[in-house]
Design brief:
- The structure is a single chain.
- The chain is α/β, with parallel strands linked by helices and 243 residues long.
- It has two domains: 180 residues, Glycosidases (TIM Barrel), CATH 3.20.20; 57 residues, Chitinase A, domain 3.
- The chain is built from six helices and 14 strands.
- α1 crosses α2.
- The protein is elongated and about 60 Å long.
- The protein starts with a strand and ends with a helix.
Length: 243
Protein backbone atom coordinates (compact mmCIF):
# COMPACT_ATOMS: atom_id res chain seq x y z
CA UNK A 1 0.00 0.00 0.00
CA UNK A 2 1.34 3.40 -0.99
CA UNK A 3 -0.01 6.33 1.01
CA UNK A 4 0.30 9.58 -0.91
CA UNK A 5 0.13 12.91 0.92
CA UNK A 6 -2.17 14.92 -1.32
CA UNK A 7 -3.44 18.50 -0.84
CA UNK A 8 -7.24 18.82 -1.05
CA UNK A 9 -7.15 20.65 -4.38
CA UNK A 10 -5.18 17.88 -6.08
CA UNK A 11 -7.10 14.78 -5.01
CA UNK A 12 -8.52 14.40 -8.53
CA UNK A 13 -4.94 13.92 -9.82
CA UNK A 14 -4.25 10.94 -7.57
CA UNK A 15 -4.07 7.58 -9.31
CA UNK A 16 -6.72 5.12 -8.24
CA UNK A 17 -4.28 2.53 -6.89
CA UNK A 18 -2.77 5.02 -4.43
CA UNK A 19 -4.27 5.76 -1.01
CA UNK A 20 -4.77 9.47 -0.26
CA UNK A 21 -3.28 10.84 2.95
CA UNK A 22 -4.96 14.11 3.90
CA UNK A 23 -2.61 16.80 5.32
CA UNK A 24 -5.37 18.89 6.89
CA UNK A 25 -5.17 17.93 10.57
CA UNK A 26 -3.19 19.42 13.40
CA UNK A 27 -2.96 19.26 17.17
CA UNK A 28 -3.44 22.55 18.99
CA UNK A 29 -2.56 23.60 22.50
CA UNK A 30 -4.38 21.74 25.20
CA UNK A 31 -4.51 18.59 23.07
CA UNK A 32 -7.32 19.57 20.70
CA UNK A 33 -7.66 18.18 17.19
CA UNK A 34 -8.31 20.66 14.39
CA UNK A 35 -9.25 20.13 10.75
CA UNK A 36 -7.93 22.94 8.57
CA UNK A 37 -10.29 24.42 6.01
CA UNK A 38 -13.72 23.27 4.90
CA UNK A 39 -12.59 19.98 3.40
CA UNK A 40 -14.57 16.85 4.29
CA UNK A 41 -12.46 13.89 3.10
CA UNK A 42 -13.69 10.32 2.91
CA UNK A 43 -11.35 7.34 2.98
CA UNK A 44 -7.59 7.18 3.02
CA UNK A 45 -5.46 8.36 5.93
CA UNK A 46 -5.17 11.27 8.36
CA UNK A 47 -1.88 13.19 8.32
CA UNK A 48 -1.56 14.64 11.81
CA UNK A 49 0.72 17.65 12.31
CA UNK A 50 1.67 17.45 15.98
CA UNK A 51 3.93 20.51 16.19
CA UNK A 52 1.27 22.31 18.21
CA UNK A 53 1.19 19.63 20.89
CA UNK A 54 2.64 21.19 24.04
CA UNK A 55 2.34 18.17 26.31
CA UNK A 56 -0.61 19.70 28.12
CA UNK A 57 -4.26 18.77 28.11
CA UNK A 58 -5.80 15.34 28.12
CA UNK A 59 -3.89 12.97 25.86
CA UNK A 60 -6.60 10.35 26.26
CA UNK A 61 -9.15 12.90 25.10
CA UNK A 62 -7.03 13.76 22.06
CA UNK A 63 -6.80 10.08 21.16
CA UNK A 64 -10.58 9.82 21.38
CA UNK A 65 -10.91 12.76 18.99
CA UNK A 66 -8.53 11.11 16.52
CA UNK A 67 -10.39 7.79 16.69
CA UNK A 68 -13.76 9.53 16.29
CA UNK A 69 -12.55 11.44 13.22
CA UNK A 70 -11.12 8.27 11.69
CA UNK A 71 -14.47 6.56 12.17
CA UNK A 72 -16.41 9.47 10.71
CA UNK A 73 -14.10 9.73 7.67
CA UNK A 74 -13.47 6.01 7.18
CA UNK A 75 -9.70 6.48 7.55
CA UNK A 76 -7.52 3.36 7.61
CA UNK A 77 -4.40 5.02 9.04
CA UNK A 78 -2.93 7.97 10.90
CA UNK A 79 0.42 9.46 9.89
CA UNK A 80 2.24 11.59 12.45
CA UNK A 81 3.90 14.23 10.34
CA UNK A 82 6.04 16.22 12.76
CA UNK A 83 7.49 16.01 16.25
CA UNK A 84 5.62 17.48 19.19
CA UNK A 85 6.80 18.54 22.62
CA UNK A 86 6.11 15.13 24.21
CA UNK A 87 6.38 12.42 21.53
CA UNK A 88 6.67 9.56 24.02
CA UNK A 89 3.44 10.42 25.80
CA UNK A 90 1.40 11.09 22.69
CA UNK A 91 2.82 8.33 20.49
CA UNK A 92 2.45 5.66 23.13
CA UNK A 93 -1.19 6.55 23.67
CA UNK A 94 -2.00 6.68 19.95
CA UNK A 95 -0.19 3.40 19.36
CA UNK A 96 -2.35 1.60 21.89
CA UNK A 97 -5.75 3.06 21.07
CA UNK A 98 -5.42 2.87 17.28
CA UNK A 99 -4.14 -0.72 17.34
CA UNK A 100 -7.26 -1.80 19.23
CA UNK A 101 -9.36 -0.44 16.36
CA UNK A 102 -7.19 -1.85 13.55
CA UNK A 103 -6.19 1.64 12.41
CA UNK A 104 -2.55 1.75 11.32
CA UNK A 105 -0.23 4.34 12.86
CA UNK A 106 2.84 5.65 11.03
CA UNK A 107 5.52 7.48 13.01
CA UNK A 108 8.92 9.08 12.32
CA UNK A 109 11.90 6.84 12.93
CA UNK A 110 12.93 8.52 16.19
CA UNK A 111 9.42 7.90 17.59
CA UNK A 112 9.62 4.18 16.90
CA UNK A 113 11.13 3.40 20.29
CA UNK A 114 7.92 4.61 21.97
CA UNK A 115 5.63 2.25 20.06
CA UNK A 116 4.90 -1.48 19.94
CA UNK A 117 2.69 -1.79 16.89
CA UNK A 118 3.11 1.39 14.81
CA UNK A 119 4.84 1.32 11.45
CA UNK A 120 8.12 3.20 11.61
CA UNK A 121 8.96 5.39 8.61
CA UNK A 122 12.46 4.82 7.21
CA UNK A 123 13.73 7.36 4.69
CA UNK A 124 14.78 6.13 1.25
CA UNK A 125 17.36 8.85 0.44
CA UNK A 126 20.89 7.67 1.21
CA UNK A 127 24.32 9.02 0.38
CA UNK A 128 26.16 5.89 1.50
CA UNK A 129 25.61 2.27 2.48
CA UNK A 130 22.68 0.44 0.92
CA UNK A 131 18.91 0.67 1.08
CA UNK A 132 18.64 -3.07 1.59
CA UNK A 133 20.85 -2.97 4.70
CA UNK A 134 19.06 0.11 5.99
CA UNK A 135 15.67 -1.60 5.84
CA UNK A 136 16.99 -4.88 7.22
CA UNK A 137 18.56 -3.11 10.19
CA UNK A 138 15.31 -1.22 10.85
CA UNK A 139 13.32 -4.46 10.73
CA UNK A 140 15.67 -6.05 13.26
CA UNK A 141 15.53 -3.00 15.54
CA UNK A 142 11.76 -2.63 15.56
CA UNK A 143 10.68 -6.27 15.53
CA UNK A 144 10.17 -7.29 11.93
CA UNK A 145 9.48 -5.93 8.42
CA UNK A 146 5.78 -5.51 9.26
CA UNK A 147 6.83 -2.73 11.66
CA UNK A 148 8.64 -0.83 8.89
CA UNK A 149 7.33 1.50 6.18
CA UNK A 150 9.37 3.19 3.46
CA UNK A 151 9.28 6.99 3.43
CA UNK A 152 10.00 7.87 -0.18
CA UNK A 153 12.32 10.85 -0.54
CA UNK A 154 12.89 11.95 -4.11
CA UNK A 155 16.07 13.96 -3.88
CA UNK A 156 18.91 15.43 -5.90
CA UNK A 157 22.20 16.58 -4.37
CA UNK A 158 25.51 17.87 -5.67
CA UNK A 159 28.41 16.70 -3.47
CA UNK A 160 31.73 18.53 -3.64
CA UNK A 161 34.29 15.81 -2.93
CA UNK A 162 35.39 14.86 -0.40
CA UNK A 163 32.09 15.27 1.48
CA UNK A 164 32.89 14.18 5.05
CA UNK A 165 29.45 15.22 6.34
CA UNK A 166 27.69 13.00 3.81
CA UNK A 167 25.56 15.85 2.50
CA UNK A 168 25.64 18.01 -0.58
CA UNK A 169 23.91 20.98 -2.10
CA UNK A 170 20.23 20.23 -2.79
CA UNK A 171 19.21 20.70 -6.41
CA UNK A 172 15.78 21.57 -7.69
CA UNK A 173 14.43 19.65 -10.65
CA UNK A 174 15.15 22.61 -12.90
CA UNK A 175 18.71 22.99 -11.59
CA UNK A 176 19.39 19.30 -12.16
CA UNK A 177 17.98 19.45 -15.67
CA UNK A 178 20.05 22.52 -16.54
CA UNK A 179 23.22 20.97 -15.11
CA UNK A 180 22.73 17.76 -17.09
CA UNK A 181 21.87 19.71 -20.21
CA UNK A 182 25.08 21.70 -19.92
CA UNK A 183 27.38 18.79 -19.01
CA UNK A 184 25.69 15.94 -20.90
CA UNK A 185 27.29 13.49 -18.45
CA UNK A 186 27.42 9.70 -18.50
CA UNK A 187 24.79 8.68 -15.93
CA UNK A 188 25.09 5.49 -13.88
CA UNK A 189 22.81 3.58 -11.52
CA UNK A 190 23.78 2.53 -7.99
CA UNK A 191 22.19 -0.78 -6.96
CA UNK A 192 23.08 -0.11 -3.32
CA UNK A 193 21.56 3.37 -3.12
CA UNK A 194 18.82 2.76 -5.71
CA UNK A 195 19.67 6.13 -7.24
CA UNK A 196 21.33 7.56 -10.36
CA UNK A 197 24.59 9.47 -10.30
CA UNK A 198 27.22 11.19 -12.40
CA UNK A 199 30.46 13.02 -11.77
CA UNK A 200 32.05 16.15 -13.17
CA UNK A 201 35.00 18.47 -12.57
CA UNK A 202 34.98 22.22 -12.06
CA UNK A 203 37.47 24.59 -13.60
CA UNK A 204 39.39 24.81 -10.34
CA UNK A 205 39.94 21.05 -10.30
CA UNK A 206 37.21 20.23 -7.83
CA UNK A 207 35.42 16.91 -8.20
CA UNK A 208 31.64 16.74 -7.94
CA UNK A 209 29.35 13.77 -7.40
CA UNK A 210 25.67 14.27 -8.25
CA UNK A 211 23.16 11.79 -6.82
CA UNK A 212 19.52 11.96 -7.89
CA UNK A 213 16.20 10.15 -8.19
CA UNK A 214 13.72 9.80 -11.01
CA UNK A 215 10.60 7.71 -11.59
CA UNK A 216 12.64 4.56 -12.23
CA UNK A 217 14.68 4.86 -9.02
CA UNK A 218 11.51 5.43 -6.98
CA UNK A 219 10.04 2.24 -8.46
CA UNK A 220 13.27 0.38 -7.69
CA UNK A 221 13.15 1.49 -4.05
CA UNK A 222 9.60 0.23 -3.74
CA UNK A 223 10.64 -3.10 -5.27
CA UNK A 224 13.53 -3.47 -2.81
CA UNK A 225 11.21 -2.77 0.10
CA UNK A 226 8.62 -5.30 -1.09
CA UNK A 227 11.30 -7.95 -1.55
CA UNK A 228 12.26 -7.50 2.11
CA UNK A 229 8.66 -7.80 3.30
CA UNK A 230 8.07 -4.05 3.70
CA UNK A 231 4.67 -3.57 2.07
CA UNK A 232 3.81 -0.03 3.22
CA UNK A 233 5.22 3.24 1.86
CA UNK A 234 4.54 6.95 2.20
CA UNK A 235 5.23 9.67 -0.38
CA UNK A 236 4.15 13.15 -1.36
CA UNK A 237 2.15 13.50 -4.54
CA UNK A 238 4.88 15.38 -6.40
CA UNK A 239 7.29 12.50 -5.74
CA UNK A 240 5.16 9.86 -7.50
CA UNK A 241 3.30 11.80 -10.20
CA UNK A 242 5.31 10.18 -12.98
CA UNK A 243 5.13 6.58 -11.72
Amino acid sequence: MLLVITPPGRLSQLRQEFVPAHPIYRVGQGGRLFRVGQVNPRGGAMVLDTRGFDGGGDVTGLCRQVVHECGMRNFCAVVCGAAGAAPQQLTGALDEVLARRNIELYVPEYWGQYTKKARVLIGSALSGGSLTCRLQEAAERFGGPERVALRLERSAEDFFLPAPQGSGKPLTGQELSELMGRLKPAVFFSDELCARYFTYMTGEGGAHFVLFDDGDTVRKKLQVARRLGVHRALARLEQVEDL
